[in-house]
Amino acid sequence: MSELVTFGESMLRLSPPGHERLENATELEVHAGGSESNVAIAAQRLGTESTWTSKVPETPLGRRVVGELRQHGIETDVVWSHRGRQGTYYLEQGGSPRGTNVIYDRADSAITTASASEFNLGLIQNAQVFFTSGITPALSESLRDATANLLKAARQGGTTTAVDFNYRRKLWSPEEAESTMTRLFPGIDILIIAARDARTVLGFEGDPRQLAHKLGSQYNFTTVVVTRGDEGAIGWHDSVVHDQAAYETDTADAIGTGDAFTGAFIARRLDGDDVPTALEYAAATAALKRTIPGDAALVTAEEVEEVVAEQGEDISR
């Protein structure tokens, strides 16, 4: 059985090459990508047996997504559907000041009709960690119930639950996200959240260290990780706060950086590392991901080890 099971939608990502505009693109690059499958891939690459579970349309596009994810080494356990469509998103990369633009086309996708009863609860309850993200309940009312019920089933089976808050303003409002996510909090052991989301959506105040401590204390999480972009991350565990700087990197594609961080953090915790060490490996994996086109962190454990070792040498000088 897999050590890690993740649940959520993977889309087809369509993007023009380089920094071209969508409106005049003559070709599009295609990748499969979604928060939960990205996390599974990153963890798998670091040695954690991982499975992605979802509801997928029985169409050529649905099979395209599942086939690509399998090529990345993870197991897939999907409910094939004859209703709904394959979600997609369009990504237009651009430097400053234009920035990167994401256009979602995922309304009425197959997963939006999913219920917890459709999935293999035994798979989840026999895993060591069950992971999903705040993107999933943002997609439909049905998925809000499914997410809550799957978290509950995981907890009942003794499985540790981990959630990346992962707020997306193009999917729902801060008020909707706050109402839904705080109802899920009692079923979550490990919370990963961006400092900006803790402030904007949850209304928390303070620096990232204060945010981590307040979240952990108020909601009784086992572990809280507060990410802070180019400044790294803060980890709170057993009422102790740990600081992790970001590693230097040349960015080819920033999409999936947070997922790479989360997948690596979970993988190293499953491997027995303490929180500070897991944060080091997470930061290294995130830095490597930014050098790789596409959503997935196609790294090796050896590459991550090298980045961690080099960073350690730089700090000791």
UniProtKB/TrEMBL annotation:
This is 2-keto-3-deoxygluconate kinase. InterPro entries: Carb_kinase_PfkB-like, KDG_KDGal_kin_Halo, PfkB_dom, Ribokinase-like. Keywords: Kinase, Transferase. Coiled coil: none annotated. GO terms for molecular function: 2-dehydro-3-deoxygluconokinase activity. Belongs to the carbohydrate kinase PfkB family. It comes from Natrialba magadii (strain ATCC 43099 / DSM 3394 / CCM 3739 / CIP 104546 / IAM 13178 / JCM 8861 / NBRC 102185 / NCIMB 2190 / MS3). Residues 1-296 form the Carbohydrate kinase PfkB domain. Its EC number is 2.7.1.45.
